[in-house]
Amino acid sequence: MSTILEVEALSKEFPVRRGLLQRQRGSVRAVDRVSLRLEEGECFALVGESGSGKTTLARSIIRLVEPSSGSVRFRGRELLELSPRELRRQRRDFQMIFQDPYGSLNPRMTVRKIVAEPIEVHRLIPRAEIPGRLRELLGLVGMPEDALDRYPHEFSGGQRQRIGIARALATEPSLLLADEPVSALDVSVQAQIINLLVDLQRRLGLTLLLIAHDLAVVEQIADRVAVMYLGRLVEVGNASEIFARPRHPYTVSLLSAVPVPDPTSGRQRILLPGEPPSPMDPPSGCAFHPRCPIVRQRCSTDEPALEERAGWPVGCHYPDEMSAPLIG
Fold it and tell me: What is the model's pTM?
């Protein structure tokens, strides 16, 4: 299996402006020195609470927002060094599925125009072949052909997300970045969209970067998982291993909230105190220490490195100390 995407020490800072003159009064580091690697054909899930930096990381990877520093290599090519014209050509190889299936579709355009737009922008096929390609794309996502001449408001949330997926597939990308693709949908529809993504990944040989906070969804689809907290990765590894025995206290707390159908499993719900710290004023040492159930003095002064600890990378001074109660 070959590496399709390599991210090294990627950071993104946003200026903080205050006062009538909107002068800069500091900055917020939404993504803090993140490094990760995606292998071709895998589903890599990025999980964490709202505000942890997941979406900003994904947008920085494909330069929907410009990173402040770091490196992003797609098939060995450095994306951060590309000119706007070069980046536009490269973008046909990676596409994004957005969280809001209605807000991401132009309400003034028919489905025909929405799905055809990336084909026309990148001049992928002769114009005469576009109608047939549109029918093929709608068929891939389970939509009828008569949807082409209708508008987004005429569809349900799940159908709109299918249209968004069809648009993302129009350029025949190698990499899909799915930003909370089912969080805005009814529970009854979520499983259908997840099953669709799994089917498309296998049939088309896609690599999928899935952003999610619902770990029940992640467990169904992901090959590997990275857990993000306050802009930093705290644990990265195979999904089956992390779900079986998480090693970072934050991962343990997230997984403890996943419903388990077996009442004898012994799983204990772990409620973290307070809210995540503000990225404008991050805590010293380990960013998680103000909420950590096993915090020690060292945690408030020394930032733990994301290092391999008997299996996979974990950013904690005391891994394993609270994983046993979760497994039960």
Answer: 0.90
Report which of 307, 157, 323 is spatially closest to residue 234, judged by C-alpha positions.
307
Strand order of the sheet with strand 3-18?
Answer: 23-39, 3-18, 69-74, 77-78
Domain boundaries, the chain: 247-328
Condensed to tens digits (0 to 9), the pLDDT of residues 12-27 reads 999 887 766 667 677 8
Contact (CB, 8 A) for 48 and 228: yes
Residue 313: C-alpha distances to residues 11, 48, 293, 294 (Å) = 19, 16, 20, 19
Start-end of H helices in the chain: 54-61, 84-90, 111-121, 130-140, 157-169, 187-204, 215-221, 239-244, 249-256, 324-327
Between CA 217 and CA 161 the distance in angstroms is 16
Are β-strands 94-97 and 175-179 bridged in parallel, bridged antiparallel, or unpaired? parallel
Q: Does residue 41 sit in helix, strand or coil?
A: coil
Cβ–Cβ contacts within 10 Å for residue 82, how many? 17
